[in-house]
Amino acid sequence: MSHFHALKIAAVDRLTPNAVALTFDIPENLKEAYSFKAGQYITLKHTLNGKELRRAYSISSPPSSGKLTVGIKKMEGGTFSVYANDQLKAGDSMEVMVPEGRFVFDATSPQKIAAFAAGSGITPIMSIAQTVLESHPDNTFVLVFGNQSPDETMYFNNIQSIKERYGDRFFVQYVYSRSTVEDALFGRIERSTVNFVLKNKFKGTEFDGFYLCGPKEMIAQVTDTLKYNGVSKEKIHFELFTADDDGDDELAEELEGKTRVEVLLDDETFTFVMDKKERVLDSVLKEDIDAPYSCQGGVCSSCIARLTEGKVEMVRNQILTESEIEEGFILTCQSHPITSSIKVDYDDV
Questions:
Q1: Is residue 24 included in any domain, yes or no?
Q2: How many whole angstroms separate alpha carbon 31 and alpha carbon 197?
Q3: How far apart (Å, rounded) are the C-alpha atoms in residues 19 and 21?
Q4: Is Lipid biosynthesis among the key words of this record (predicted)?
Q5: Per residue in 65-86, pLDDT tens?
Q6: Is residue 244 a part of any domain in this protein?
Q7: Which residue segment(s) compose the domain that 165 sits in?
Q8: CATH number of 46's domain
Q9: Local structure of 245: helix, strand or coil
Protein backbone atom coordinates (compact mmCIF):
# COMPACT_ATOMS: atom_id res chain seq x y z
CA MET A 1 0.00 0.00 0.00
CA SER A 2 2.89 2.38 0.76
CA HIS A 3 4.10 2.60 -2.83
CA PHE A 4 7.50 4.27 -2.57
CA HIS A 5 10.08 4.37 -5.35
CA ALA A 6 13.62 5.71 -5.29
CA LEU A 7 13.66 8.80 -7.52
CA LYS A 8 16.60 10.99 -8.42
CA ILE A 9 16.42 14.73 -7.90
CA ALA A 10 16.70 16.40 -11.30
CA ALA A 11 16.99 19.96 -9.99
CA VAL A 12 17.14 21.98 -6.78
CA ASP A 13 16.02 25.58 -7.32
CA ARG A 14 16.29 28.29 -4.67
CA LEU A 15 12.90 30.01 -4.23
CA THR A 16 13.74 32.24 -1.27
CA PRO A 17 16.61 32.37 1.24
CA ASN A 18 14.63 29.77 3.21
CA ALA A 19 12.86 27.68 0.60
CA VAL A 20 13.75 25.39 -2.29
CA ALA A 21 11.91 23.60 -5.08
CA LEU A 22 12.82 19.96 -5.70
CA THR A 23 12.09 18.47 -9.12
CA PHE A 24 12.25 14.70 -9.45
CA ASP A 25 13.27 12.68 -12.46
CA ILE A 26 10.51 10.17 -13.28
CA PRO A 27 11.64 7.09 -15.25
CA GLU A 28 9.48 6.18 -18.21
CA ASN A 29 8.19 3.00 -16.53
CA LEU A 30 6.88 5.04 -13.57
CA LYS A 31 5.23 7.89 -15.49
CA GLU A 32 1.74 6.48 -15.00
CA ALA A 33 2.28 5.77 -11.30
CA TYR A 34 3.34 9.38 -10.71
CA SER A 35 0.59 11.05 -12.72
CA PHE A 36 -1.37 13.41 -10.49
CA LYS A 37 -4.21 15.91 -10.20
CA ALA A 38 -3.59 19.58 -9.46
CA GLY A 39 -3.43 20.06 -5.68
CA GLN A 40 -2.18 16.59 -4.71
CA TYR A 41 0.94 15.86 -2.68
CA ILE A 42 3.74 13.32 -2.39
CA THR A 43 5.34 11.85 0.71
CA LEU A 44 9.13 11.81 0.95
CA LYS A 45 10.86 9.18 3.06
CA HIS A 46 14.45 9.51 4.20
CA THR A 47 16.61 8.25 7.05
CA LEU A 48 18.56 10.89 8.98
CA ASN A 49 20.77 10.04 11.93
CA GLY A 50 19.32 6.54 12.00
CA LYS A 51 15.70 7.73 12.16
CA GLU A 52 13.18 7.32 9.36
CA LEU A 53 11.40 10.57 8.51
CA ARG A 54 8.30 10.97 6.37
CA ARG A 55 7.11 14.34 5.19
CA ALA A 56 4.23 15.27 2.89
CA TYR A 57 4.79 18.09 0.39
CA SER A 58 2.30 19.44 -2.12
CA ILE A 59 3.13 19.34 -5.83
CA SER A 60 3.58 22.83 -7.25
CA SER A 61 3.95 21.90 -10.93
CA PRO A 62 0.79 21.49 -13.04
CA PRO A 63 0.04 18.00 -14.41
CA SER A 64 0.47 19.34 -17.95
CA SER A 65 4.14 20.18 -17.32
CA GLY A 66 5.29 16.58 -17.14
CA LYS A 67 7.31 17.57 -14.05
CA LEU A 68 7.03 16.51 -10.42
CA THR A 69 8.08 19.50 -8.31
CA VAL A 70 7.53 20.30 -4.63
CA GLY A 71 8.38 23.37 -2.60
CA ILE A 72 10.00 22.97 0.83
CA LYS A 73 10.26 25.85 3.26
CA LYS A 74 12.87 25.64 6.03
CA MET A 75 11.06 25.46 9.34
CA GLU A 76 12.57 26.75 12.55
CA GLY A 77 13.61 23.73 14.58
CA GLY A 78 12.80 21.48 11.63
CA THR A 79 14.73 18.37 10.68
CA PHE A 80 13.90 17.31 7.15
CA SER A 81 13.12 20.82 5.90
CA VAL A 82 16.53 22.03 7.07
CA TYR A 83 18.22 19.04 5.46
CA ALA A 84 16.37 19.62 2.18
CA ASN A 85 17.29 23.29 2.06
CA ASP A 86 20.92 22.96 3.14
CA GLN A 87 22.14 19.63 1.80
CA LEU A 88 20.04 18.12 -0.99
CA LYS A 89 21.40 18.53 -4.51
CA ALA A 90 20.69 17.39 -8.05
CA GLY A 91 21.57 13.72 -8.48
CA ASP A 92 20.65 12.73 -4.92
CA SER A 93 18.10 9.94 -4.52
CA MET A 94 14.97 10.05 -2.38
CA GLU A 95 12.20 7.56 -1.56
CA VAL A 96 8.99 9.09 -2.93
CA MET A 97 5.45 7.80 -2.49
CA VAL A 98 3.06 8.01 -5.43
CA PRO A 99 0.85 11.14 -5.45
CA GLU A 100 -2.28 11.27 -3.34
CA GLY A 101 -4.61 13.80 -1.73
CA ARG A 102 -8.13 15.16 -2.09
CA PHE A 103 -7.49 18.92 -2.26
CA VAL A 104 -7.81 18.90 -6.03
CA PHE A 105 -9.17 20.81 -9.02
CA ASP A 106 -10.27 18.74 -12.00
CA ALA A 107 -13.33 20.54 -13.42
CA THR A 108 -13.65 20.87 -17.19
CA SER A 109 -16.42 23.49 -17.44
CA PRO A 110 -15.61 27.23 -17.31
CA GLN A 111 -14.77 28.32 -13.78
CA LYS A 112 -14.01 31.44 -11.77
CA ILE A 113 -11.76 30.41 -8.90
CA ALA A 114 -10.32 32.35 -5.96
CA ALA A 115 -7.53 31.13 -3.67
CA PHE A 116 -6.21 32.33 -0.34
CA ALA A 117 -2.73 31.09 0.57
CA ALA A 118 -0.18 31.96 3.24
CA GLY A 119 3.52 31.10 3.19
CA SER A 120 4.24 27.60 1.93
CA GLY A 121 0.50 27.12 1.48
CA ILE A 122 1.07 28.49 -2.01
CA THR A 123 2.56 25.18 -3.17
CA PRO A 124 -0.61 23.28 -4.18
CA ILE A 125 -2.22 26.55 -5.27
CA MET A 126 0.52 26.97 -7.90
CA SER A 127 -0.53 23.71 -9.52
CA ILE A 128 -4.23 24.48 -9.20
CA ALA A 129 -3.92 28.03 -10.59
CA GLN A 130 -2.04 26.94 -13.71
CA THR A 131 -4.44 24.06 -14.28
CA VAL A 132 -7.48 26.33 -13.95
CA LEU A 133 -6.04 28.78 -16.48
CA GLU A 134 -4.96 26.05 -18.91
CA SER A 135 -8.15 24.03 -18.80
CA HIS A 136 -10.50 26.58 -20.41
CA PRO A 137 -9.94 29.92 -22.18
CA ASP A 138 -12.80 31.52 -20.21
CA ASN A 139 -11.45 30.54 -16.77
CA THR A 140 -10.21 33.19 -14.35
CA PHE A 141 -8.16 32.84 -11.19
CA VAL A 142 -7.77 35.26 -8.29
CA LEU A 143 -4.88 34.66 -5.87
CA VAL A 144 -4.60 36.31 -2.46
CA PHE A 145 -1.15 35.46 -1.11
CA GLY A 146 0.15 36.36 2.35
CA ASN A 147 3.82 36.48 3.40
CA GLN A 148 6.16 38.42 5.65
CA SER A 149 7.90 40.20 2.76
CA PRO A 150 8.58 39.93 -0.99
CA ASP A 151 11.93 38.23 -0.27
CA GLU A 152 10.14 35.45 1.62
CA THR A 153 7.49 34.94 -1.06
CA MET A 154 7.80 31.46 -2.51
CA TYR A 155 7.34 31.17 -6.30
CA PHE A 156 7.27 34.96 -6.69
CA ASN A 157 8.96 34.86 -10.12
CA ASN A 158 6.72 32.00 -11.26
CA ILE A 159 3.64 33.95 -10.22
CA GLN A 160 4.81 37.01 -12.14
CA SER A 161 5.36 34.82 -15.22
CA ILE A 162 1.83 33.45 -14.95
CA LYS A 163 0.57 37.00 -14.58
CA GLU A 164 2.33 38.04 -17.79
CA ARG A 165 0.95 35.03 -19.67
CA TYR A 166 -2.63 35.25 -18.41
CA GLY A 167 -2.81 38.96 -17.59
CA ASP A 168 -6.50 39.31 -18.40
CA ARG A 169 -7.53 36.18 -16.47
CA PHE A 170 -5.07 35.93 -13.57
CA PHE A 171 -5.11 38.43 -10.70
CA VAL A 172 -2.83 38.56 -7.66
CA GLN A 173 -3.28 40.44 -4.40
CA TYR A 174 -0.18 40.24 -2.22
CA VAL A 175 -0.46 40.70 1.56
CA TYR A 176 2.70 41.40 3.60
CA SER A 177 2.89 41.38 7.39
CA ARG A 178 6.34 42.97 7.73
CA SER A 179 6.75 45.05 4.58
CA THR A 180 4.97 48.02 3.09
CA VAL A 181 4.83 47.52 -0.68
CA GLU A 182 2.93 49.44 -3.34
CA ASP A 183 -0.34 47.73 -4.38
CA ALA A 184 0.06 45.16 -1.58
CA LEU A 185 -2.07 45.02 1.56
CA PHE A 186 -0.33 45.28 4.94
CA GLY A 187 -1.05 42.72 7.64
CA ARG A 188 -2.31 39.16 7.44
CA ILE A 189 -5.08 37.45 5.52
CA GLU A 190 -8.17 37.94 7.68
CA ARG A 191 -11.81 39.00 7.56
CA SER A 192 -11.08 42.45 6.12
CA THR A 193 -8.92 40.93 3.37
CA VAL A 194 -11.71 38.62 2.23
CA ASN A 195 -14.28 41.41 2.29
CA PHE A 196 -11.95 43.66 0.28
CA VAL A 197 -11.63 40.99 -2.42
CA LEU A 198 -15.31 40.04 -2.53
CA LYS A 199 -16.97 43.42 -2.02
CA ASN A 200 -14.46 45.81 -3.53
CA LYS A 201 -11.85 44.49 -5.91
CA PHE A 202 -14.07 41.79 -7.44
CA LYS A 203 -17.49 43.11 -6.55
CA GLY A 204 -20.18 41.34 -8.54
CA THR A 205 -18.01 38.34 -9.45
CA GLU A 206 -19.70 35.00 -8.82
CA PHE A 207 -16.90 32.60 -7.92
CA ASP A 208 -17.40 28.88 -8.55
CA GLY A 209 -14.89 27.72 -5.96
CA PHE A 210 -12.49 28.85 -3.25
CA TYR A 211 -9.23 27.07 -2.41
CA LEU A 212 -7.59 27.84 0.93
CA CYS A 213 -4.19 26.63 2.11
CA GLY A 214 -2.29 27.84 5.13
CA PRO A 215 -2.41 27.79 8.94
CA LYS A 216 -5.59 26.81 10.74
CA GLU A 217 -6.37 30.32 12.03
CA MET A 218 -6.26 31.80 8.53
CA ILE A 219 -8.42 29.05 7.06
CA ALA A 220 -10.98 29.44 9.85
CA GLN A 221 -11.23 33.22 9.39
CA VAL A 222 -11.47 33.03 5.61
CA THR A 223 -14.03 30.22 5.74
CA ASP A 224 -16.23 32.05 8.28
CA THR A 225 -16.08 35.27 6.25
CA LEU A 226 -16.93 33.50 2.99
CA LYS A 227 -19.93 31.81 4.63
CA TYR A 228 -21.03 35.15 6.13
CA ASN A 229 -20.99 36.54 2.59
CA GLY A 230 -23.29 33.79 1.40
CA VAL A 231 -20.76 31.32 -0.04
CA SER A 232 -21.93 27.73 0.40
CA LYS A 233 -19.59 25.31 2.17
CA GLU A 234 -19.59 23.08 -0.93
CA LYS A 235 -17.62 25.78 -2.77
CA ILE A 236 -14.94 26.03 -0.07
CA HIS A 237 -11.98 23.64 -0.26
CA PHE A 238 -9.10 23.82 2.18
CA GLU A 239 -5.89 22.14 3.22
CA LEU A 240 -3.81 22.78 6.32
CA PHE A 241 -0.04 22.77 5.90
CA THR A 242 0.83 21.94 9.53
CA ALA A 243 -0.54 19.41 11.98
CA ASP A 244 -2.73 20.95 14.68
CA ASP A 245 -1.61 18.55 17.38
CA ASP A 246 -0.99 19.94 20.84
CA GLY A 247 -0.27 16.49 22.21
CA ASP A 248 -3.44 16.55 24.35
CA ASP A 249 -5.40 13.31 24.02
CA GLU A 250 -8.07 13.27 26.71
CA LEU A 251 -9.84 10.37 25.01
CA ALA A 252 -6.84 8.10 25.54
CA GLU A 253 -6.95 8.82 29.27
CA GLU A 254 -10.60 7.78 29.46
CA LEU A 255 -10.37 4.48 27.57
CA GLU A 256 -9.70 1.11 29.21
CA GLY A 257 -9.27 -2.41 27.88
CA LYS A 258 -8.14 -4.13 24.71
CA THR A 259 -9.46 -4.40 21.15
CA ARG A 260 -8.99 -7.19 18.63
CA VAL A 261 -8.02 -5.63 15.30
CA GLU A 262 -8.28 -7.10 11.82
CA VAL A 263 -6.49 -5.14 9.08
CA LEU A 264 -6.87 -5.66 5.34
CA LEU A 265 -3.92 -4.24 3.40
CA ASP A 266 -2.78 -5.14 -0.12
CA ASP A 267 -5.15 -8.14 -0.09
CA GLU A 268 -3.51 -9.51 3.07
CA THR A 269 -5.28 -9.87 6.40
CA PHE A 270 -3.49 -9.17 9.68
CA THR A 271 -4.88 -9.65 13.18
CA PHE A 272 -3.57 -8.44 16.52
CA VAL A 273 -4.72 -7.07 19.86
CA MET A 274 -4.16 -3.44 20.84
CA ASP A 275 -4.74 -1.22 23.84
CA LYS A 276 -7.66 1.17 23.41
CA LYS A 277 -5.46 3.96 24.72
CA GLU A 278 -3.34 3.65 21.58
CA ARG A 279 -4.27 4.98 18.15
CA VAL A 280 -4.95 2.50 15.37
CA LEU A 281 -2.10 3.58 13.08
CA ASP A 282 0.46 3.49 15.90
CA SER A 283 -0.55 -0.08 16.74
CA VAL A 284 -0.57 -1.14 13.09
CA LEU A 285 2.98 0.15 12.62
CA LYS A 286 4.12 -1.57 15.81
CA GLU A 287 3.04 -4.83 14.21
CA ASP A 288 5.40 -4.09 11.26
CA ILE A 289 2.45 -3.74 8.91
CA ASP A 290 3.39 -1.39 6.07
CA ALA A 291 0.34 0.86 6.28
CA PRO A 292 0.41 4.20 4.47
CA TYR A 293 1.09 7.29 6.57
CA SER A 294 2.88 10.60 6.46
CA CYS A 295 2.12 13.50 8.82
CA GLN A 296 0.54 11.44 11.65
CA GLY A 297 -1.19 14.64 12.70
CA GLY A 298 -4.49 14.44 10.84
CA VAL A 299 -3.47 16.94 8.15
CA CYS A 300 -2.73 14.75 5.13
CA SER A 301 -4.98 11.93 3.94
CA SER A 302 -2.35 9.19 3.66
CA CYS A 303 -3.65 7.01 6.50
CA ILE A 304 -7.34 6.98 5.55
CA ALA A 305 -9.01 3.57 5.76
CA ARG A 306 -12.56 2.22 5.85
CA LEU A 307 -13.91 0.88 9.13
CA THR A 308 -16.00 -2.16 8.21
CA GLU A 309 -16.76 -3.43 11.72
CA GLY A 310 -16.79 -1.92 15.20
CA LYS A 311 -16.45 1.70 16.25
CA VAL A 312 -13.67 4.22 16.74
CA GLU A 313 -13.48 7.81 17.93
CA MET A 314 -11.16 10.30 16.29
CA VAL A 315 -9.16 12.70 18.44
CA ARG A 316 -9.49 15.31 15.68
CA ASN A 317 -10.66 15.40 12.09
CA GLN A 318 -9.77 18.21 9.72
CA ILE A 319 -10.18 16.29 6.47
CA LEU A 320 -13.12 13.92 6.31
CA THR A 321 -16.59 15.20 5.51
CA GLU A 322 -19.68 14.08 7.39
CA SER A 323 -20.78 11.94 4.43
CA GLU A 324 -17.36 10.25 4.27
CA ILE A 325 -17.52 9.46 7.97
CA GLU A 326 -20.99 8.00 7.44
CA GLU A 327 -19.49 5.79 4.72
CA GLY A 328 -17.04 4.42 7.29
CA PHE A 329 -13.87 6.34 6.46
CA ILE A 330 -11.52 7.10 9.34
CA LEU A 331 -8.14 8.73 9.85
CA THR A 332 -6.28 5.84 11.45
CA CYS A 333 -3.64 8.19 12.91
CA GLN A 334 -6.38 9.90 14.94
CA SER A 335 -8.58 6.90 15.82
CA HIS A 336 -9.00 5.08 19.12
CA PRO A 337 -11.03 1.85 19.06
CA ILE A 338 -13.96 1.92 21.49
CA THR A 339 -15.40 -1.54 20.84
CA SER A 340 -13.97 -4.97 21.65
CA SER A 341 -13.13 -5.58 17.98
CA ILE A 342 -12.73 -3.56 14.79
CA LYS A 343 -12.00 -4.28 11.15
CA VAL A 344 -10.00 -1.77 9.14
CA ASP A 345 -9.72 -1.90 5.33
CA TYR A 346 -6.92 0.16 3.74
CA ASP A 347 -7.65 -1.27 0.29
CA ASP A 348 -11.22 0.02 -0.07
CA VAL A 349 -10.41 3.74 -0.13
A1: yes
A2: 39
A3: 7
A4: no
A5: 999 999 999 998 889 999 999 9
A6: no
A7: 112-239
A8: 2.40.30.10
A9: coil
